[in-house]
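Write out the bound-state structure for GLP.
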Amino acid sequence: MTIYVTKNYDEMSKKGAEIIAEFLKVKPAANLGLATGGTPVGMYKELIEMNKKGEISFKEVSAYNLDEYYPIEKTNDQSYDYFMKDNLFNHVDININNTHIPNGMAANCEAEGKAYDELVRATGGVDIQVLGIGGNGHIGFNEPSDIFEPITHQVTLDERTIQDNARFFNSIDEVPTQAITMGIGTIMTAKSILLLASGSGKATILREMLLGKVDPRVPASILQFHKDVKVVLDEEAAAEL
Ligand code: GLP
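---
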């Protein structure tokens, strides 16, 4: 695992974008695993700029997102489908048909989860998976639990996650209580991982994730067992390391 500590959110975003850009230069047809949340937005902005300047291309890229609220329509501006279009896909030269997000309206979440994992596997697996981290240590929407969930599945969101995400909604009552997320097992099959975190609110959980024992109560701690992880933090997030 390599940990990079940058000065602030902007520097974290630049470093993250640099890592993705380097990757795309070597493998233009990469399978990118992508994340939502506030953390990667700055990195996506950097990537959009690089794409506009012709420094990188997404033409051959396939994208696989971690998760989606459930149930939610793609057209809902709170859906992660909408988020990805708004923050990245609509502004770069990616073929939208090559972008994939779990279906927030799936009639059968178990079947959707299996099909999603199969899709990821059939296309050769994720080359580089972008992750944020929840204040409770979740990755994707894998909440603290007694087990590490192996596959893409339906989850009930933690009270903490609902509170944390309420800032994106008009009121906490509007935050969906369920989601479909890649499992921890799915995430761990990615060939490499890029986890970003910023701000003092993430400092304690990063200490637990990086220096604590591997425990499904801190889902991100499983990344200690992954062979190729880059963690890009800002100084505030790294304060307790
Ligand atoms: C969200 C997403 C995660 C994200 C995390 C942190 O709920 N499901 O993929 O990493 O919570 O979000 P933020 O980056 O806004 O702190």
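---
Residues 35-39, 66-67, 132-134, 140-141, 161, 165 surround GLP (CB under 6 Å).
The longest helix spans residues 9-26.
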